[in-house]
Design goal:
Layout lengths: L14 H4 L5 H16 L4 H12 L3 H10 L3 H10 L10 E5 H12 L3 E4 L5 E3 L13 H14 L4 E7 L5 H15 L3 E6 L2 H7 L3 E3 L3 H4 L8 H9 L3 E4 L3
Parallel strand pairs: 1-4, 1-6, 2-7, 4-5
Antiparallel strand pairs: 2-3
Helix pairs in contact: 2-3, 2-4, 3-4, 6-7, 6-11, 7-8
Length: 239
């Protein structure tokens, strides 16, 4: 496998065509159909193949549909456990580190972002066991920190996946920026951050579907940050 030499987390060369405006009705219909199948207990893999083949979707389009779809049950549960941003004052939050930072890096790099059926924002990036900082990494962390500080959160606990290479370097960068800015942050590199988030009483900051279906409370920081960034490429597949 060749090393990751990207300096930005921007768009794939084919994305302008794959997610052109004329493609969106087809993609939104695919999200509706996949969500309908998931609501009736179809398995994701077979359901995605059925929908993708029906609409002649390319690989990245299928990934976009997968990340944008969910069952009605999941959508309602996520709505019920969502804590509004204006209620974050004094709260302790736990952050899905890679999940949040990579999306904000992509937003700053004009990479495609997806608003899914549950209204969460997700990116099309893939870590695949290896993370590399890009030019926008420090800016992304600062944007996140300034937003959390302005909301008056009591504490911030960042979790990063130990099996992902360079997670220790990113943890050090986050901790250094927090110390420099006087933010009350703790950063840890652990083997299973998803399990820790799902068992935590703190407010979760993530858009990971599995985590969202199990946490007691979460907040949609990504949407708030994307609005602040302003010129992000947001593809609305929420129907």
């Amino acid at each position: 496998m060749s090393p990751d030499t990207r300096h930005h987390r921007g768009a794939h060369p084919a994305d302008a065509e794959l997610f052109h405006a004329y493609q969106l009705p087809k993609l939104r219909q695919a999200v509706r159909e996949l969500s309908w199948l998931l609501s009736r207990s179809y398995q994701m893999t077979s359901a995605l193949k059925l929908v993708g083949d029906r609409h002649g979707l390319r690989e990245r389009q299928r990934l976009a549909v997968l990340r944008s779809s969910c069952s009605d049950e999941s959508k309602e549960r996520r709505r019920a456990t969502l804590l509004p941003m204006n209620e974050l004052n004094g709260q302790n939050v736990v952050v899905d580190g890679f999940n949040l930072i990579i999306t904000i890096e992509a937003a700053l790099s004009r990479g495609p972002l997806l608003r899914g059926a549950d209204l969460c924002i997700r990116d099309l990036s893939s870590v695949h066991g290896s993370y590399r900082s890009v030019h926008e990494t420090e800016h992304a962390i600062n944007i996140i920190g300034e937003a959390l500080q302005s909301m008056g959160v009591s504490s911030v606990f960042w979790l990063l996946d130990r099996p992902v290479s360079n997670s220790g370097r990113l943890a050090s960068k986050i901790a250094d920026l927090a110390t420099r800015s006087g933010w009350p942050w703790k950063v840890d590199v652990v083997f299973n951050p998803d399990a820790m988030m799902m068992s935590s009483a703190d407010v979760a900051i993530t858009s990971d579907a599995t985590v969202l279906d199990h946490v007691s409370r979460w907040t949609d920081l990504k949407s708030h940050l994307i609005n602040r960034i302003g010129d992000a490429w947001l593809i609305d597949l929420s129907n």
